[in-house]
Amino acid sequence: MHDQEGEAAGRRARGELESGVLATLWAADEPLTARQVLGRLPGDLAYTTVLTILSRLYDKGMLVRHRAGRGYAYAPVRDEASHTAEQMHALLEHGSDREAVLSRFVSELSREDEELLQRLLTDHEPGQGSGPDSGPDSGPDGKEP
Fold first, then answer.
1. For labeling, which of 2, 19, 58, 105 is most exposed (least CB within 10 Å)?
2. Contacting residues for 92 by C-beta, under 8 A, at least 6 apart
3. By the 8 A CB rule, do 24 and 74 touch?
């Protein structure tokens, strides 16, 4: 039997496992092996499933790994905030009407989030980016002159 999302009953939605693995790695103080990740994930997952997810995330460039015994220990390339901001930016780039998307986003913020966003925008210096290539020696495109 399938639900509206097309997933079989009892199965996780696409991306849910990847998100769970990433959340587990972000919460860790050090790189984790597949066995350690498995032990920290809820549910009854197979070890090979966790290995597959870790390999996919590694292949996508989202994780780094180093040898740990006969296997690998994995760690995220970016922190959770950077990852989420990158996803938000990618979604915005794919929309055909940036103003409508941003307007809808802002209109659905809680009062607290709206105040936080306003404060962040006020504190943000115009013309200054916030990415890793936008230092004081960077030009308007984020590259050095």
1. 2
2. 98, 101, 102
3. no
How far is residue 28's CA from residue 50's CA, in Å, rounded to a whole number?
A: 16
Residue 137: φ, ψ to 5°:
-95, 5
Tokens coding 116: 């936080």
- What is the predicted pLDDT for the residue at 43? 87
Q: What is the DSSP string of 53-88?
A: HHHHHHHTTSEEEEEETTEEEEEESS-HHHHHHHHH
CA-CA distance, 126 to 88, in Å (whole number)?
20
How far is it, in rounded angstroms, from Cα 20 to Cα 45?
12
Tokens of 61: 């460039």
Give helix then strand counts, H and E, for the chain.
Answer: 6, 3
Question: Phi first, then psi: what are they for 81, rounded to 5°?
Answer: -65, -40
Residue 74: exposed, middle, or buried by beta-carbon count in 10 A (0-12, 13-18, 19+)?
buried
Helix (H) or strand (E) holding 27: helix 16-27
| pTM of structure | 0.65
DSSP 45: -
Helix (H, G, I), strand (E, B) or coil at 34: helix
